[in-house]
Design a protein that fits this description.
Elements (H helix, E strand, L loop, with lengths): L7 H8 L9 H11 L12 H7 L4 H15 L3 H34 L4 E6 L2 E6 L8 E5 L7 E13 L1 H4 L5 E2 L18 E2 L4 E13 L5 H11 L6 H30 L4 H15 L4 H18 L2 E3 L3 H7 L3 E5 L10 E7 L2 E5 L10 E3 L2 E3 L6 H10 L4 E5 L2 E5 L2 H12 L4 H4 L3 E6 L7 E7 L5 E7 L1 H4 L3 E6 L2 E4 L2 H16 L3 E10 L7 H4 L3 E10 L6 H10 L3 E5 L4 H10 L8 E4 H5 L3 H7 L3 E5 L3 H13 L4 E5 L5 H6 L2 E5 L5 H6 L2 E3 L4 H41 L8 H11 L1 H7 L25 H26 L4 H22 L15 H19 L4 H4 L6 H16 L9
Helix pairs in contact: 3-5, 4-5, 4-9, 8-9, 8-25, 9-26, 10-25, 10-27, 11-25, 12-13, 21-22, 25-27, 25-28, 25-29, 26-29, 27-30, 28-29, 28-32, 29-30, 29-32
Length: 886
């Protein structure tokens, strides 16, 4: 039902209610049974135990648990406990993340008003908002939260704050008149009040036409319930990697066991060796190391004024190819600012942004002061006809009241007109702004008891009431050509996306009537204010840096097309042939139709929550990784559906914050750029330790496989394999996660989300380094075994030490995509300390006699160490001169 098109009498007939008596108790009971309570419904809550158990459904986790059980049965308790702890920690993290995500709908419920004033049986009552039914008559006053969707039937200067719902940056004026236009979106339905919005000014009465899930807020809740969260690129890559590793490791370990049994080794020993190799091949520490790397990135992001709610979010930003950003407050200051004044037939330009009182007035290149004709008077009138005030907090001005009124006060301050100037005038009468009049007037009296009227309002309303206008030489009669020049000035400002406000005055005597119809006629036109919400200074270079990084920035806003286009052009978002789409055009398109043109579209204006969701889906279907920003409830479904949702810390609602992955503490687009840079670095670090761990694991498996093929004794015993897996692989891999970015990460294009973990030569490097590590370990084993065939423990100690040393040298090779010589090894002192720690533990295992029987080691000579260091460095040195990036 299009309630906004119906007049009040027709609505009363349809809902069987009268606005002066309200519903009866019997009607209320019937309607509650028919429509239910006025609450937002959520999905059925899943049991916490089921959510927790769901964290262990991953195939890699199940294999690790099986390996843990076998290791425990075979007496390898240290390894079993380590794996179990890692699996449990990751399960707990996943459980709490999922619990937090489900709270977003609960926050939506809290946005409905707790209490409401309704008319029933001819008497006003205060009831819980959940008891409201369709047809109830509701009274609204300033400060109230609208309890349901209402058709306004009475309005007295009524304004509501709908930015959280529709994206509008300014309060919306409401009226009671039917609107004949068809297919209006909620932000254009000026005779409707919507659940969850705030009354910021005036009062009114409305008839409830929608409750619970049948409200606009309910539609958003429904979108959130039905929107599926896609796995992040990192989650997809790790799942893919896990399957590959499990498949390869099981085949290779089975091969090693079978060959060993065929060659006469005991089944028990070969089975134990096979389990050890399986555990070594599957990097069970990988999820923990990824978590540590992401957590370190989170700490760095906090210092950059961003809070990461989901660890994978930082990495996902690193491969973002599209940023869909809100305009107001994110790209702009969210502070209305007077940028231009039209007075005496001239355009004066005003410097300074936001609520900073520093600024100057210029006529062309010439700076003007308070002596410029009529300028000081015009600024004074704007200050007098005003209901806002300026507050100072921590040395900065804040506006208490309407942002537009605040802009006029700041403009006066820039000319040196202080609040004390206004105190010389006493307000005799005020005619407040309302949606029908579109103007505000005050009658003021100065120290000399001289009275005059000041009127401000929409130019199209004020201009017909002006009989005179001021020029440099005084007041003159308004002629048609004068009105034409003023209208040209209005169009000039409108084309620059400025909101225009006209100022007029009228001298009065004590005998003049103060009746409104006569009072606001025969005005003298003084001038026009042109104001805009200015872009943030740091946003333009941030957008340019994103463009160089191959990331497209798209503006999505509830504001008008002209405003959106002007801001987009100012920030260099909109290229010469770029498209701008309105919400009404999106209404006529399917997702597939939008998909065909979305790569050429850079600005979306006058959009609804459904539009935002459609935009995100269209980009995703084009293969993009989408980052979506927002602050209002209307943004929450799109934020949840995007690859990475970003909410505003200052202006954002709780619903949006709970649905998002990243919260910007400063509401600043430039912070997103910093997050992208951090995300790219984190992914590179993840690739580094995947390269290190897998090359090491390949070396461990191959040395055993080659020994079996050559009918040699086992070069490594199971406990040595497990020691390498737990000690040598762990600490250096974690230290790689603290590495700084190599080169300029923001000069490269985003990764293809379909790109595998082993892309760009990583798989080649893992196999070649792993092959060499296995080969040199086997060679040193064979040399030591030939030298002393009666002492197998000596040969195994040499092989064990060579394997560890080749890995510890190889970790420095992993820091660069170029070569081991490309970076200073002391840039990452965490890595240096990790390697020294592993080396110290190795020496303890080799030389401390109580541990020698446990780890099957014996003391080595200086000659042995020379052999080990030469062969251990070969895998890295052989590729050290290949400086070409693969």
């Amino acid at each position: 039902m299009k309630w906004y098109q119906l007049d009040v009498e027709r609505i009363e007939q349809k809902l069987h209610v009268t606005a002066n008596r309200g519903l009866t108790d019997k009607q209320v009971e019937q309607r509650r049974k028919q429509y239910g309570e006025n609450v937002l419904e959520a999905q059925k809550q899943t049991s916490r135990w089921l959510i927790f158990l769901k964290q262990f459904q991953d195939f890699m986790v199940l294999v690790l648990l099986a390996a843990t059980l076998i290791a425990g049965l075979l007496g390898e308790y240290i390894d079993a406990i380590a794996i179990m702890v890692i699996v449990l920690v990751n399960g707990v993290i996943g459980f709490f993340q999922e619990q937090k995500a489900e709270k977003s709908l609960e926050k939506l419920k809290e946005l409905s008003a707790p209490m409401a004033h309704v008319l029933r049986n001819g008497h006003w009552e205060k009831i819980s908002s959940r008891d409201i039914v369709i047809g109830d008559i509701v009274r609204l006053q300033s400060g109230d939260r609208v309890p349901a969707d209402l058709r306004i039937v009475q309005s007295s200067s009524l304004e509501t704050e709908e930015s959280a719902l529709t994206g509008e940056s300014l309060p919306v004026t409401k009226h009671a008149t039917a609107i004949t236009a068809d297919e209006l979106d909620p932000q254009d339905q000026a005779n409707m009040g919507f659940m969850g919005t705030m009354v910021t000014r005036g009062s009114g009465i409305g008839i409830v036409v929608g409750t619970g899930m049948d409200t606009v807020m309910g539609q958003i809740a429904s979108l959130m319930v039905n929107t599926k969260k896609l796995p992040t690129p990192l989650e997809r890559k790790l799942a893919e990697l896990g399957k590959i590793l499990i498949f390869v490791s099981l085949i290779l370990t089975a091969l090693v066991v079978i060959l060993g049994v065929i060659q006469g080794h005991q089944i028990y020993h070969m089975f134990l060796a096979g389990v050890s190799l399986a555990v070594a091949a599957i990097p069970e520490g990988l999820p923990a190391i990824v978590t540590v790397a992401l957590a370190l990135g989170v700490q760095r992001m906090i210092r950059r004024k961003a809070i990461v709610r989901k660890l994978s979010a930082v990495e996902t930003l690193g491969c973002a190819s599209v940023i869909c950003s809100d305009k107001t407050g994110t790209m702009t200051e969210n502070k209305m600012t007077v940028k231009e004044i039209y007075v005496n037939g001239n355009h004066l330009y005003v410097t300074g942004d936001g609520y900073d009182t520093r600024g100057d007035y210029f006529l062309g290149e010439r700076k003007v002061n308070e002596e410029h004709p009529n300028l000081e008077s015009m600024l004074l009138y704007g200050m007098l006809c005003n209901n806002s005030s300026l507050q100072v907090k921590k040395g900065k001005y804040l506006v208490d009241g309407d942002p537009t009124d605040g802009a006029l006060l700041i403009a006066a301050r820039k000319m040196g007109i202080s609040a004390s100037e206004g105190e010389r005038y006493r307000v005799v009468k005020e005619l407040p702004f309302d949606s029908d009049r579109k103007r505000m007037s005050v009658v003021v009296e100065d120290d000399n008891q001289m009275r005059f009227l000041v009127t401000k309002g929409a130019p199209e309303v004020l201009l017909p009431r002006c009989s005179f206008h001021v020029q440099e030489h005084g007041r003159q009669v308004m002629k048609e050509q004068d009105k034409g020049r003023i209208e040209q000035a209005i169009n000039h400002m409108a084309n620059k996306a400025m909101r225009t406000l006209a100022i007029g005055m009228k001298p009065l005597s004590k005998e003049d009537s103060l009746d409104a119809p006569l009072l606001e006629n025969d005005l003298t036109f003084f001038g026009l204010y042109g104001m805009i919400d200015p872009p943030r200074k740091e946003v333009k270079p941030a957008i340019e840096e994103c463009r160089q990084a191959g990331i497209k920035t798209v503006m999505i806003t509830g504001d008008h097309v002209k405003t959106a286009r002007a801001i987009a052009e100012n920030l260099n978002i909109l290229p010469e042939n770029g498209k701008v789409l309105e919400g009404r055009q999106l209404n006529q398109m399917s997702v597939s139709e939008l998909e065909d043109i979305i790569d050429d579209t850079y600005v979306f204006a006058r959009v609804t929550p459904e539009h935002k969701l459609k935009i995100v889906k269209a980009f995703q279907q084009r293969g993009h990784v989408v980052a979506m920003t927002g602050d209002g409830v209307n943004d929450a479904p799109a934020i949840k559906a995007s690859d990475i949702g970003i909410s505003m810390g200052r202006s954002g609602t709780d619903v949006t914050k709970e649905a998002s992955s990243l919260i910007l503490m400063d509401d600043n687009f430039a912070t997103i750029k910093s997050a992208i840079k951090e995300g790219r670095n984190i992914y590179e670090n993840i690739r580094k330790f995947i390269r290190y761990i897998l090359a090491s694991n390949v070396g461990e498996i191959l040395v055993m496989l080659f020994a079996m093929l050559l009918a040699l004794p086992l070069p490594l015993v199971p406990v040595q394999i497990l020691w390498v897996n737990l000690v040598t692989d762990g600490l250096p891999a974690m230290a790689l996660g603290m590495d700084k970015a190599e080169g300029d990460s923001m000069r490269r294009k985003p990764r293809d989300p379909k790109e595998g973990v082993f892309a760009n030569g990583l798989g080649y490097r893992i196999v070649t380094r792993g092959f060499l590590i296995g080969t040199v370990t086997l060679i040193t084993f064979m040399l030591a075994y030939q030298d002393n065939p009666d002492n197998l423990i000596y040969a195994q100690t040499v092989a064990f030490t060579t394997l560890v040393m080749s890995q510890l040298i190889h970790v420095f090779d992993c820091r660069s995509e170029h070569s081991v010589f490309a970076r200073n090894p002391f840039e990452n002192m965490y890595l240096v300390m990790a390697v020294l720690s592993s080396l110290l533990l190795l020496l303890v295992v080799i030389y401390w006699e109580p541990l020698q029987p446990i780890f099957h080691t014996t003391a080595l000579s200086l000659r042995d160490w020379m052999l080990i260091l030469v062969f251990g460095s070969l895998p890295s040195v052989l590729f050290g001169f290949n400086t070409k990036r693969r």
